[in-house]
Amino acid sequence: MPGHVKVDHYDIDIIAVFDSWIIDGKMAMRGDITLDGVNDDRIPLQFHVLNIDERSLVLDAGTEGLRTFSKFVYDFEREFFWIHYNTPQNSGQSFSFLLSCNYTGVIQGNLFGFYHVAYKVRGSATNDNMAVTQFESAGARHAFPCLDEPSLKARFSLRIGRNSSFDSVANMPKMANTGTEAVPGYPGFVWDEFEESVQMSPYLVAFAVGKFLSVTSNPLPNNLPFYNKVF
Fold it and tell me: Which region, left, alpha or beta, applies to residue 40 given φ > 0 means left and ψ of -120 to 50 means alpha?
């Protein structure tokens, strides 16, 4: 992985559509690019079974303004998507950037990445479904395009769009009053928004969508509640 791009923060929106096991997502990442004389005109993203909407790509170079793109190169074997752009002329050795794109993907059935599983509800003769993540150690690219290396740590802000009959959980607490904003284009869907994470590797991002029941224990000594999700 070239070291000229440093990402500080990701904003990830993921809409989980159970009927078709489709991901409808948006990714925005902020950070700094250091001109190294080798990769000055390109930014890498890593992806797996994702369709990146090239028309939605926006690269904002801060004071240097929006950049235009010269070409896009897919390396499917190594799971890289290279974005070639018009390098700012007055940026010196580095510049800050914001890169965003829309994409679609698949909620898979192979117990890796963002995948779905069926389970039987106690006392019921029918199965139900849930979708969960298992990203370790390079599986975040199955759910959103990113720089998916354990050493490339960043902070993550996550929103999950889900059917209002389901719930979602993640490894950060939900924001107050979440679960009320409607998801445009998806009748009956609402957004769950989670607090910004600590700086961490992409594979540590974790979330699940399903029909959960929350059971809250007594607060721990550090005053953080413990949640046990049961179904």
Answer: alpha
Q: What is the token pair recorded at 129?
A: 């479904």
Backbone φ and ψ for 140, nearest 5 degrees, come out as -60, -30
The tokens describing 137, both together, are 């150690």
pTM of this prediction exceeds 0.85: yes
Burial label for 18, CB within 10 Å (0-12, 13-18, 19+), is: middle
- Which pLDDT does position 222 carry in this prediction? 56
| Domain at 1-231, CATH from 3.30.9.10, 2.60.40.1730, 2.60.120.380, 3.90.190.20 | 2.60.40.1730
Closest CA to 207 of 130, 141, 129, 108: 130
Cβ 147 vs Cβ 113: under 8 Å:
no
Q: Which two tokens stand for residue 71?
A: 């070409």
The per-residue pLDDT for 127 is 85
Give pLDDT tens digits for 145-195: 999 999 999 999 999 999 999 999 999 999 988 899 999 999 999 999 999
